[in-house]
Structures are given as structure tokens and as C-alpha cells.
Design a protein that fits this description.
Helices cover 23% and strands 24% of the residues. By secondary structure, it is an alpha/beta fold. The strands form 2 sheets. It has an 8-stranded mixed sheet with strand order 3-2-6-5-4-8-9-10, covered by helices on one side. A 3-stranded antiparallel sheet has the order 1-11-7, with helices on one face. A hairpin with a 5-residue loop joins β8 and β9. The chain is globular.
Length: 183
């Protein structure tokens, strides 16, 4: 397991790169699929990473707490050939087992992860109504899978965004397993 920290590629106020990806519900999604939402949270994740497994409940909580205002989209960009636990069928099973309430999409070509500059799982990007980046970084301050969060960073930032307040720190790196790139 290679542990990495988020890196800045997309900067504050950069537009969300578009995508067209298949979800575990067998439907295709793009940015326009989520146009009615006031905010968009794109999280690069996978099935096997202990850092992601430790955050799934917090990610579900974000989707459920801000239902109708925030669209939470998980994107799995890992090489499923080298990591069969991250195959599309495994994604469907993981979503079912973990009660995932957010959209979970597969990025088989890994082009979307590269456009966003994602490097680890989880690697979250929060966008406003205009799909401009307002925050890139951690979900909470539990930086190891076994840690307990004492600050729900993303929840606080979504609350500020929806209330029309500015987010003072636009980058606060997430930590997780490296995205498993194809050779």
C-alpha cells in the first residue's frame, strides 16, 4: 500500500472537468446530470483502500445530510485488471454491502482522474453551483483509517458553501492509497 497526499492540479475557481461515466446502477452520468444541485462533491475512491473504507459512512452522511442540495459522486479510477477488487462488478457489490447512497462511477480509462489531478483515494473536490472549485481536500481530520474524526471538514465547508459564505482554506490535503494506474 502506497500512501499519498492530495496534490494541487485544479486550483480554486477552476471549472470541474466534464466526464461521461457509467454508474453502479448501469446508467451513464456527466456533469449535466447533476445540474439541479447547488454543490457537487467529486471523490476519487475505490473498494479496497482502508482509507476509503474508513470514510464510506462519512461520505454517505454527506449525501444524506445535504440531500437535494449536494450531489456526491464517487469515482473509481483504479486499474481493475491489476486490482480485481476494484472491478465494476466488485464496485456494485461494495456499494450494496456498504449501503452507498451516493453515485458511484467507474473511470476505466483513468482520463477523468488525470483531468482532476487526483492521486489518492479518497481525493475529494468540492464545486459550487457554477462548478468552480471551492475546496480540494480531506473529508475530516481522521488521517489514518483507525483514527476518530474530531472535525468534519467537508461538512463544515459544504455548510459554508450552501450558506453563501467563503471557505477560508481552499486546499487541505487528503491522505490515502495511491490511485492504481495502468502501466
Amino acid at each position: 500500500m502506497v500512501v499519498m497526499e492530495s496534490q494541487i492540479v485544479l486550483k480554486k475557481d477552476d471549472s470541474a472537468p466534464d466526464f461521461e461515466l457509467l454508474g453502479v446502477d448501469d446508467k451513464k452520468y456527466s456533469l449535466v446530470s447533476f445540474k439541479e444541485f447547488e454543490a457537487l462533491l467529486v471523490i476519487f475512491m475505490c473498494n479496497h483502500c482502508p482509507y476509503v473504507k474508513a470514510k464510506v459512512d462519512a461520505i454517505n452522511e454527506l449525501q444524506n445530510r445535504f440531500k437535494g442540495k449536494l450531489a456526491v459522486i464517487g469515482i473509481n479510477s483504479n486499474d481493475a485488471v491489476a486490482y480485481p477488487d476494484d472491478s465494476f462488478d466488485s464496485m456494485k457489490e461494495f456499494a450494496k454491502q456498504r449501503g452507498i447512497s451516493f453515485w458511484y462511477l467507474v473511470d476505466e480509462t483513468q482520463k477523468v482522474a488525470k483531468k482532476y489531478g487526483a492521486v489518492c483515494t479518497p481525493d475529494p473536490f468540492l464545486f459550487n453551483k457554477e462548478r468552480k472549485l471551492v475546496f480540494h481536500g480531506r473529508i475530516d481530520n481522521a488521517m489514518k483509517p483507525e483514527d476518530k474524526a474530531t472535525e468534519n471538514t467537508m461538512t463544515l465547508n459544504v455548510e459554508k458553501l450552501l450558506a453563501g459564505q467563503s471557505i477560508s482554506k481552499d486546499f487541505d490535503p487528503s491522505i490515502g492509497c495511491s490511485i492504481k494506474w495502468k502501466n
